[in-house]
Design goal:
- The protein has helices spanning 17-61, 73-80, 82-88, 103-111, 122-130, 178-189, 204-213, 225-233, 254-259, 261-280, 282-293, 297-307, 317-332, 342-345; strands at 63-69, 93-100, 117-121, 135-141, 150-154, 170-173, 198-201, 218-222, 236-237, 248-253, 312-313.
- It has 355 residues and is an alpha/beta fold.
- The strands form 2 sheets. A 6-stranded mixed sheet has the order 2-1-3-10-4-11, sandwiched between helices.
- Helix 11 (282-293) packs across helix 12 (297-307).
- It is globular, with a radius of gyration of 30 Å.
Length: 355
């Protein structure tokens, strides 16, 4: 705001009332004119500054960056194009980042402020949060007890036929991820001490050739790697269902959720709608996988079948309780360095339990 200062003028000589009035009138006119011009200048400057600030804020808040792995719902949403159209109607621009080979590299992208949202599993997400990466949980895909999207694989000619045969053997897993979690849960269910099986920490891209060439005896992994290994490399599974089914997570960069909640929530909602569309058009989903993964139609169809429905929803109290149980187990197993409070790890998007 502009403030008009009071001016006091002292005169050493007396002036007639007419002279003083004339001088005063003239001086006040000059002040009014100067004040009017300065006010106009200030108004213009303030208007321009406000306009620039608003433009920069709008530009910042109207971009959402989506990171993806091969074969997930995000690349299918990218291919389909409906998400971009929906967000464009809300004046939100979408940028894409990927593909990433595993959750660890995707989470690193979020952590490094190169993306805002990415699809991952609950185990690597909790591990990332425990490592104090600035992440939060945006939405979840609830686990299906009969899902075949995780498995422990062995070579087709391997003598290993059941989890008990893994004693004394080497199993490839991704450290602190879904593979390590699956192996430990299977061993726990079979009452096999975890130290009786050697864990070899490898990324999926390194674990696949290690299994095929015999450097490891088994591989705990997820889709689409399972179907590729089975149908293209004659691997076989020694587990069917998961003893502790896991959640899918839409992970959000913490600052994006705080600074840009409207765009984040809009993107999560649009991804959920893409998932519902995919559930009703499984053949189209398989076609997308053929194009994205460069695999056969048979592999794509099996991946789609094994994964089951793609339904992402905002968390409710039951989801939080399940994820907290998982987080506490990971701490007990010393897979994560500190306890994660799932309630505070949920993104502050002012969402309610959607479904």
């Amino acid at each position: 705001m502009n403030y008009l200062k009071e001016h006091r003028f002292q005169y050493k000589q007396k002036c007639s009332a007419i002279t003083i009035f004339a001088i005063a009138a003239s001086f006040l006119g000059l002040i009014a004119s100067g004040c009017s011009q300065q006010t106009a200048i200030n108004a213009t400057v303030n208007s321009d500054s406000s306009s620039n600030l608003t433009t920069k804020t709008t530009e910042k808040n109207n971009v959402i960056r989506l990171a993806y792995q091969k074969g997930g719902i995000i690349p299918i949403a990218r291919e389909r194009g409906e998400l971009e159209r929906k967000l464009a109607m809300q004046n939100i621009k979408v940028e894409w980042s990927g593909p990433f080979d595993r959750c660890a590299t995707l989470l690193s992208s979020l952590n490094g402020n190169r993306a805002d949202i990415g699809g991952c599993g609950d185990i690597p997400t909790i591990s990332g949060i425990a490592a104090e990466q600035p992440l939060c949980i945006g939405s979840v895909q609830r686990p299906s007890p009969d899902s075949l999207s995780n498995a422990i694989l062995v070579r087709g000619d391997s003598p290993i036929g059941k989890p008990a045969d893994l004693v004394g053997k080497k199993v490839a897993v991704n450290q602190g991820g879904a593979g390590e979690y699956l192996l430990l849960k299977v061993l726990e269910k079979e009452n096999i001490p975890s130290n009786k099986v050697k864990r070899v920490y490898l990324s999926p891209n390194d674990a696949a050739p290690a299994l095929y060439q015999g450097s490891v005896d088994a591989w705990a992994v997820w889709e689409p790697y399972i179907s590729i290994a089975q149908l293209e490399h004659k691997a076989r599974r020694i587990t069917t269902t998961h003893p502790a089914p896991t959640y899918g997570i839409m992970v959000v960069r913490g600052d994006a959720a705080k600074e840009n909640p409207v765009a984040v929530k809009a993107a999560l909602t649009a991804l959920s709608e893409d998932g519902e569309w995919l559930n009703q058009h499984s053949n189209a989903g398989s076609d997308f996988l053929v194009k994205q993964l460069k695999v056969s139609d048979a592999v794509a169809k099996q991946v789609t079948k094994n994964r089951g429905p793609e339904s992402y929803v905002f968390l409710n109290a039951e989801d939080i309780a399940h994820l907290q149980k998982t987080a506490d187990w990971l701490l007990e197993q010393k897979i994560i360095p500190q306890r994660v409070d799932i309630t505070t790890a949920v993104c502050p998007l002012e969402t309610t339990a959607a479904r």
